[in-house]
Write a structure and sequence with these properties.
single chain; 128 residues; mainly alpha; Multidrug-efflux Transporter Regulator, Chain: A, Domain 2; two-stranded antiparallel sheet; 2 strands; transcription regulation
Length: 128
């Protein structure tokens, strides 16, 4: 269960965000370096994240668990946030991912079948 959020609006420290999302501080810095999340800097130089970053990081983590790369997530987030119907935009991304996964499964099945037909056959490189 995620840790409770602080009561200060629009001002999560990196530790607060890490505790609320289960993503390490290094992971959050990595997401920030990739442009997936943004922080402003406090007067002391520390990062300060808006409360919305919690949902954004959870979105990123879920997308990763579904097989999306960080590049795909970054592109997809841009597309999703620009659409008036974000549910439809996410559904479209998921459909595209299903097509990609099905193509990979078909390719792997063909490779498996090719290997299976060679099991037990003599090595084609062996000399007789």
């Amino acid at each position: 269960m995620p840790a409770p959020l602080p009561t200060q609006p629009d001002d999560l420290s990196i530790g607060d965000l890490a505790a609320a999302t289960g993503v390490s501080r290094d992971g959050l810095r990595f997401y920030e370096a990739r442009g997936l999340i943004r922080a402003r800097r406090r007067s002391n130089g520390y990062r300060a994240y808006p409360l919305e970053a919690v949902e954004l990081v959870r979105y990123i983590r879920t997308a990763q668990q579904l097989g999306f790369t960080l590049a795909e997530i970054g592109e997809g987030m841009t597309q999703v946030w620009q659409q008036p119907d974000t549910d439809a935009a996410v559904t479209a991304l998921l459909r595209e991912k299903l097509i990609s996964i099905d193509a990979r499964i078909a390719s792997l099945q063909a490779m498996r079948d090719a290997v299976a037909t060679r099991v037990g056959l003599p090595c084609p490189l062996a000399t007789t």
